[in-house]
Amino acid sequence: MKEKLLERFIPLVDFIATIVGPHCEVVLHDVTNVESSIIAIRNGHISGRKVGGPLTDLGLKFLKEKLYQTQDAMVNYPARTKDGKPLRSSTFFIKDDNGELVGMLCVNVDLSTALQARKFIDDFIMNIDTDKQAQKINLRSEFLEVTNPSLEDLMSSLIEETIKQFNVPPERLSQEEKIEIVQKLNDKGFFLLKGAVTELAKYLKTSESTIYRYLNNYKKRDEK
């Protein structure tokens, strides 16, 4: 009876390991034989175990304390292999019709590669001092570069970001506000873009000649 029950879980060993991948060790234990409890295992290279291996120390603790009587599983607890690999482990308790424990299905995810990747990312991010880099190119510390996929997106982004500072729809902007928008966009290098005047005229609901006039007046003022 016990053997047949555990046999049903053997396909799950391959199923889970195939889904999660080579960093996931899946082990099926027969807890009625703790000295050689492993009856199926996938990705045993993670812990170095194989069929015929014993139950773990924590498995023995689960068995001794009869934890299976109050819950069906233990999920996402920390563990380590003998050689120090960090694991995220989960154990499902396999019980017979009488509620007695006959096996454990254990899933152990090797976190070592993920932790190395996280360290790289943390180190990389910490190495970026945005305030210092912003000061080098005379920008506000809150400035962030936005990588727009096209010229149209770039122009729209610059215009919308500038207009947004006035909290007024484009059609309700005063002449003074429109002049200030032209000035701000000029300071951002907006008019270095081909078609910038035409695009801005559409947003501000005005003529291109008006935009040129605002722009020329601003440049003349700076030249004085």
Automatic annotation (TrEMBL):
Ranges where the Transcriptional regulator DauR-like HTH domain occurs: 155-216
UniProt cross-references to Pfam families, sorted A to Z: HTH_22, PAS_6
Domain called YheO-like: residue spans: 6-119
InterPro entries the record matches: DauR-like (IPR039446), DauR-like_HTH (IPR039445), YheO (IPR013559)
Protein's name in the database: Transcriptional regulator YheO
Organism: Carboxydothermus ferrireducens DSM 11255
